[in-house]
Amino acid sequence: MLSVHAVSSNFKTQQLPQAWSKALKKNGGNRLQKKITAPMVIKWMHPHVGRLKLNVDGAFKSATGSAGGGGILRDHNGRCICAFAKNYQGTISALDAEARALQDGLAMCCSKGFLDIMVETDSLMLTQSVTGQSQRPWVLTCIFQEMAEINHKLTTQIQHIPHEANQTAHYIAGYGCSTDQTCFWELEAILPHIVKGPYRLDKVGYPTLRT
């Protein structure tokens, strides 16, 4: 059964101290807003002990039509269980690439025997399409039907997350966009060099600030 969780995107605001406001006005700061947006701390969250989490992402370049996707399955220590990157031909939109990446990620987990997984994507449109919260584009009907067939074999929970919390999958998708073959990895040591940086930051829980 598939469920969805929304991540809050509310930002806290801070009022400037009165003394600061007066100083700004004296120095021609009347055009400045008195309220500033406090930075939001965002990071990839490790799954609970005994759980596995699949992060997927798609990449689509409208100028060239090139597209790719990728995903990574990790345990509660942030260790890579398996990952993939793939180039997609005939992709028509970013949602198309995102959906293909999710389909391939679910298929990878199913083929490896990992049948109970958490899924994260930074595409709200994909999340809403998969969970039936929004209408699916008819041109992508086949992809969503095939995805549903795979999902019947799995116990999955899909969650929309901020882009900053999906950096490892983002770089894997970019790699898939640049390659001409389908790649699979089962060891973190052999992940593409461009992916290792964000992967290691996720593993140790390093946060990103959204200002």
From TrEMBL:
CDD domains found in the cross-reference section: RNase_H_like (cd06222)
The RNase H type-1 domain, residue ranges: 55-173
Membrane-spanning ranges: none
InterPro entries given in the database record: RNase_H-like, RNase_H-like_dom_plant, RNaseH-like_sf, RNaseH_domain, RNaseH_sf
SUPFAM superfamilies referenced in this protein's UniProt entry, alphabetically: Ribonuclease H-like
Pfam families: RVT_3 (PF13456)
GO molecular function list: nucleic acid binding; RNA-DNA hybrid ribonuclease activity
Protein name: RNase H type-1 domain-containing protein
Species per Swiss-Prot/TrEMBL record: Colocasia esculenta (Wild taro)
